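From the methods appendix. Each design record in this collection lists the tokenized structure first, followed by the designed amino acid sequence. Records were kept in a plain field format so they could be parsed without special tools. The example shown here is representative of the layout used throughout.

RECORD:
FOLD TOKENS (250 positions):
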């Protein structure tokens, strides 16, 4: 295995894990349909961090987001190495169902990668490169604000974006920056293993009442420099049956 492949796959593994949805284990629902409507939540200059978090949850779709049984994102990705303007094109599939997640990235010959978390253990096609449990970071934590031990704290605002942090009982945290008009998430940052993973959501679309990103970028600072990935979602499937075999550990 080449050093170039190792560096790319390590970066893309972590970048891909940064964006996750909330998918609980409940009964399946009808097929996904895109609409032009979107959630709008009132945020004022005096809104508390807890109110901002509630607004962000509403911006994601509120109870419809919390009650997702599964989310599948399929599309294309452009991968950028540090200090490079030349991208490596590829395809990706991200599947979440409850605490389970699978990511496949095909950008051969540079990168061909698979990572699976079955709710208890992880598998990586690259030994030693595994994802943390997907329910502990990112938008998924917004659906757990009522659970004991979750703390919402203030962060400095950024231009027209309001900011807050959600910390779980184990000390895992996600920093959110939301649009002050809609409550939609614009950026979220995840500190993990002495690194910071940043996701910026460029475009979204309403699917059955859930606000789903259709274009987003991710940035990861590593010793080699900053890696970037630009994702374009071509197909979205919500609340579709996902068999346990999808998350089987090879």
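DESIGN:
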């Amino acid at each position: 295995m080449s050093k170039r492949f190792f560096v790319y796959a390590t970066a893309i593994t972590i970048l891909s894990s940064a964006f996750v949805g909330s998918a609980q284990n409940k009964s399946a629902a009808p097929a996904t349909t895109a609409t032009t409507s979107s959630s709008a939540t009132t945020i004022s200059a005096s809104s508390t961090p807890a109110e901002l978090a509630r607004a962000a949850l509403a911006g994601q779709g509120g109870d419809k987001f919390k009650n997702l049984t599964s989310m599948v994102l399929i599309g294309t990705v452009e991968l950028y190495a540090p200090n490079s303007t030349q991208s490596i094109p590829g395809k990706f599939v991200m599947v979440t169902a409850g605490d389970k997640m699978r990511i496949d990235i095909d950008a051969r010959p540079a990168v061909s990668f698979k990572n699976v978390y079955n709710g208890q253990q992880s598998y990586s096609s690259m030994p030693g490169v595994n994802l943390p449990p997907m329910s502990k970071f990112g938008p998924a934590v917004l659906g757990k604000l009522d659970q004991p031990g979750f703390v919402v704290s203030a962060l400095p605002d950024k231009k027209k974006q309001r900011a807050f942090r959600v910390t779980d009982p184990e000390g895992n945290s996600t920093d959110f920056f939301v649009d002050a008009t809609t409550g939609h998430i614009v950026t979220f940052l995840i500190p993990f293993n002495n690194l910071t993973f940043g996701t910026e959501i460029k475009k979204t679309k309403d699917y059955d009442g859930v606000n789903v990103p259709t274009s987003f970028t991710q940035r990861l600072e590593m010793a080699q420099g900053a890696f970037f990935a630009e994702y374009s979602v071509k197909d979205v499937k919500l609340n579709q049956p996902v068999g346990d075999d999808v998350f089987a550990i090879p």
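APPENDIX NOTE: Helices lie at 3-17, 49-60, 63-66.
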